[in-house]
Amino acid sequence: MRRIKKTAAFLLSLCLMGCAVGQGEGVQSSENTFTSMEAEPDLAYEVPVDSPNIFVNQLGYITDSTKVAVFYAQELPGTFRVIQKDTGECVFTGYLEEKGDAGGAQECAGYGDFSEVQAPGVYYIEAPMIGRSYSFRIGDDLYDQVFMEACKQYYYNRCGMTLSSEYAGEMAHNACHTGKALLREDSSVSIDVSGGWHQDERGSKMVEPAAKSIAMMLLAYELYGDSFTDYMGIPESENGIPDLLDEIRYEVEWLLKMQDPATGAVYSGVTIYEQGAGRSGAYVEPADLETARAFAMVLAKFSYLYQHYDTAYATECLKAADRAWKYARLNENKDEKASGWKFAAAAELYRASGLQSCHWYITDYLTEEKFEENMDEVIFLGCVTYISTKQPVKLVLCENISKALMDKGEEISEQARNSAFMTAGNTQQEMLLNMMYLTMIDHMISNHEYENMIENHLHYFMGRNEKAVCYIDDVGENNYKSIDESAGIMKQFDADSRLIFMLSEIVGNYRD
């Protein structure tokens, strides 16, 4: 059963359960008009299809979830109706609650709660003087396919191997970048750095972005492992290992190629250059200390979680992480500023190996640095690992981390409460980053209000936003692909891993 918790006062203001008219009261067909005190009412429901002012999740809503539509108008009507698309039948009439200024064109925002509608089907919402929304579904397991496709994006971006139509469908392609790449610093030397995931249209592959995305997905697996299956539809499916870990291993094998086995240094990435006549080559970019730390962090994290499936390979990864850590320590400038990557790497190595020198650095960092003020996703990952480790820890430091996370959660929730679309952040990336924090905090304290805020952001990405555009692949009547191919969340290397993190909790909750 999904966890049931006491609903926060914020959600009560949205639910409108006491204001809704039941299915047996005031029900009209979609072809009728609302009654009016005007002698000659002009209450057309239709608005231009490219600019509806009733915003919904264009994929749909889980049967027993909270279902809220957002309305924009210079003057909000009192009621709205939910219409079954196939029959045109009105199945629910409810009252609007005004939110306030919508932030532009002197419009007001209002909320319409239709959580009582639970029968599976396809619907839309209409209201007098506003028009109608795009259509949406109500049913169970609506988000499972989206979750699987978000995870599978990394398979589609595999480099160095042929993707057959059996697994990749329209994304099938021949093997690419299979030759050796030249060292940027010495083009007389070439090395094999094939494999891994493309991170952009040119085929670049950089270590630090890869480390962030992998670490994010590994944390999602660690918190919500039951959300991930072994039948995602990749060549490794049904091998007894969750497909997410299989996919990450493919990237880890490339990361191992990026390490100089003699020194432990890690090349920062692979970039593509044009050779002319439609041909291209690849450069291996120089090693640096931050890359070595990012490598150490993610290899240690992977080894810790993968040891249950392949102990020998996990051990190989941990040894590689240790070599990168020692290389960075040996070559670092003693006067350099504190590094988030160094802190995160120390946290992962300490958890995986118990290395005491790593714990000394963690202690110094959390004591001397203002990590609360400077927290980004890398520092966040290190903090979460430290409070999760089974190794001995300093309780006061764990308490400081927990407080910083709770404060962050309240800051995010306050932004969401003051937003017409119940979201926190000005861009997709900010929203996804905030939901990364909130998802972790909700896992710690199990807050029903936070759960709803996380789901509200999914509604936003699926069309309940000011442009009424769905930013998820192949979802919705008004999909981003018809407007801007670059706007899709799944097509952005780092954003997709954050989406996976957020979806892992939502899917996990509805599967419970």
Describe what this molecule looks like in 3D.
This protein has 512 residues and is an alpha+beta fold. It has helices spanning 9-15, 144-156, 165-168, 207-223, 243-257, 289-306, 311-331, 340-353, 356-368, 371-374, 377-388, 395-417, 428-445, 448-461, 493-511, and strands at residues 54-55, 60-62, 68-73, 79-84, 90-101, 108-113, 121-127, 131-132, 136-139, 181-183, 186-191, 205-206, 267-276, 279-287. The chain has a domain at 13-139: Immunoglobulins (Immunoglobulin-like, Sandwich). Helices cover 41% and strands 15% of the residues. The longest helix is centred in the last third of the chain and has 23 residues, at 395-417.
Low-confidence stretches: 1-50
Question: What is the string of helix and strand elements?
Answer: HEEEEEEEEEHHEEEHHEEHHHHHHHHHH
Query: How many alpha or pi helices?
Result: 15
Work out the helicity level: 40-55%
| Strand runs, count | 14
Q: In the CATH scheme, what's the topology name of the domain at 13-139? A: Immunoglobulin-like
Keywords, separated by commas or semicolons:
single chain; globular; 15 helices; five-stranded mixed beta sheet; 512 residues; alpha+beta; 41% helix; disordered N terminus; nine-stranded mixed beta sheet; Immunoglobulin-like; 14 strands
